[in-house]
Design goal:
Elements lengths: L12 E10 L2 E11 L4 E5 L6 H8 L7 E6 L2 E2 L5 H8 L2 E4 L11 H12 L3 H14 L15 H13 L5 E5 L7 H16 L3 E5 L3 H6 L3 E6 L2 E5 L6
Parallel strand pairs: 3-8, 3-9, 6-7, 7-8
Antiparallel strand pairs: 1-2, 1-4, 4-5, 9-10
Helix pairs in contact: 3-4, 3-5
Length: about 230
């Protein structure tokens, strides 16, 4: 992760009166939300409530239609492509549909972010193999991703997102395609990342998951967002 001491003094994400939507219709409206560096947040809400839309805005793919969104202290509405690209290097994303390069191996998919950074292959191999053992895919290292099951693809997508040790990790239903044992192992991986300073924002509809871990919750309902601190439940 990047050492940005000044970032610790301000929210890593700050939304002021933000609305966002598609084709002129807002999916989310008038959102006020601040997340501090090192926080862990669940994003909850019924199917269609806007969880994926919120994440796509926070990981800098979609701009707000109204309001101010600051990420790493930068107003993204006034950030050019170069600045957005630099900010994205500090962000990890686990997409609900995986978005793996199916023709590449498990190893090459996970190694890709490190190769883009220009890291040497010896260090890349060390990091990738350690992570593959953790997610129990070390026996599938040279398999093409097109041959994997949905649960295996989910684990590869998570490994690719965290291998770069991002400042923020956004995860959209990251345990949706795995069994309970692997889901627990993946949650421990997210927790360990959070302990060393990564801000985690995890969208899920799994109530058992959110009730099992005492983290703050951003609940989306009727186009608005409400933040419930840890220990507080509706």
């Amino acid at each position: 992760m990047t050492d940005n001491t000044a970032d610790i003094l301000q929210p890593i994400i700050d939304m002021q009166n933000v609305s966002v939507g598609y084709d002129g219709e807002d999916v989310l409206k008038d959102i006020y939300l601040s997340l501090m560096p090192g926080s862990f947040s669940f994003v909850t809400g019924k199917s269609g409530a806007g969880k994926t839309t919120l994440l796509s805005m926070l990981y800098l793919i979609k701009r707000p239609s109204k309001g101010i969104l600051n990420v790493f202290g930068n107003n993204i509405n006034f950030s050019n492509r170069t600045n957005l690209a630099l900010m994205r290097q500090r962000i990890g994303v686990v997409f609900q549909d995986f978005r793996l390069l199916e023709h590449l191996t498990v190893y090459d998919n996970i190694a890709l972010p490190l190769r883009v950074r220009g890291m040497n292959e010896k260090e890349i191999n060390k990091r990738v193999m350690e992570l593959l053992k953790w997610i129990e895919l070390h026996r599938s290292v040279y398999k093409q991703c097109s041959t994997l099951s949905g649960g295996e693809k989910q684990r590869v997508a998570i490994a690719r997102a965290v291998i770069n040790r991002p400042d923020i990790l956004f995860a959209d239903e990251p345990t949706g395609s795995v069994d309970a044992e692997i889901a627990e192992k993946l949650m421990r991986l997210f927790i360990e990342l959070n302990k060393v300073g990564t801000t985690i924002v995890l969208a899920t509809h799994n109530e058992q998951l959110t009730s099992s871990y005492n983290y703050q919750r951003i609940d989306l309902s009727n186009g608005t967002a409400k933040l419930y601190p840890a220990l507080q439940r509706v």
